[in-house]
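Hey, can you fold this one?
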Amino acid sequence: MKLAIAVAGKGGTGKTTLSALLVRVFKEQGIGPILAVDADPNSTLADALGTETGRPLAEIREESSSAEGAPASGMGRARAIDDEIQRSLVEADGFDLITMGRGEGPRCYCYVNTLLRKSLSSLTSNYNVLVLDNEAGMEHLSRRTTDNIDLLFGVLNPTVPSLRAVERVVALSRELPVNIARRVAVVNRVGAEGTGEEIDRRLEGLDVERFADIPQDDELERLGAVAGDVFSLPDDNPALAAVRKMVKGLI
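Sure. Predicted structure:
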C-alpha cells in the first residue's frame, strides 16, 4: 500500500492534530513505514507526535544556497544535500519525521530546491505512508516537495472564516504542478448542534468529498494546551475514534 496524504487549512483548525492522529492510527494498523513531514513554518507536528523536531530542511536550503556554505556543484552538492537530509530525519517509534521549516528568503533557490526535491522524492519512495502537514498556502506543495498526493485534506472548524480558507486551499490545489487524486473536506470540533446550514451548503458546492466530522473533544483541547502528544490519548477518545473510521475507509 502506498498512500500520500496532505493536510491543509487555516491555522488553529486542528490540522496538525489531525496529521498526528493519522500517524498514530496508521501505526496502530501496522501500516508502514510511515513518514511524517512538518511543512508548516510553525513546526508543531513534533510536539503533537511526542518526538524531537530535528534539523529543519530550511537550514539546509539556506546553507546550500550561500556562497560560503555551499559544497561544490554537481554530484558533490547533490550528495551533500542527500547526507544532510538523512541526518535531519528523526527516527521515532513506528514513524520517521522530517521538518521543512520556515519559508524562503530573498536568495535564488532554484538549483537547491531541485536537489532538495530529488532527495525528498528518493526518501519518500521508501515509505508506504506519507502524512504531510501543510500551511494554508501550501508553499511546499506549490514548490513540488512531492509530485503525487492521493488525498488532500482541507480541515476546517464549523466557522465561515475557516471554510473560506479551505475554499482557497481547494482552488489553489487545482493550479499546482502536483497530481492530486482526491480532495476531501474534514470538519473538526463539531458540537452537538452540528456544522450549520451555511457550512453544509457551501461544502456541497465545493466539489470535494466530505469525510465524517470530528467531534468537539475537550480532552484533545487540553492536550494541545500543554503541548501533549496524541499517543497519550486513551483508546476510547472520540476524536481518535473518528480518525480510525477515516483510515478504515481508506484501507
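DSSP finds ten helices and eight strands in the chain. Let me know if you want another pass with a different chain boundary.
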